[in-house]
Design a protein that fits this description.
Strand content: under 5%
Order of helices and strands: HH
Number of helices: 2
Number of domains: 1
Distance between the termini: 29 Å
Largest sheet: none
Radius of gyration: 15 Å
Helix content: over 70%
Amino acid sequence: MVAFLLLFTLSAAVVGGLVLGKPIYLFLSGQKKESLKTALYTVGWLFIITIFTLLLLIKI
């Protein structure tokens, strides 16, 4: 059980770094508009994929 929690935490840290890394880098380099656009596109696609997956699971 502990190994699962450690693996889940590591996975969340890696994905969080990948998802937030680029927008933060763009924001700190002065490209605020591009940073916001990248973050919103990422969250939007994650929302769409989540809804699609839930719809597939409900149908099955």
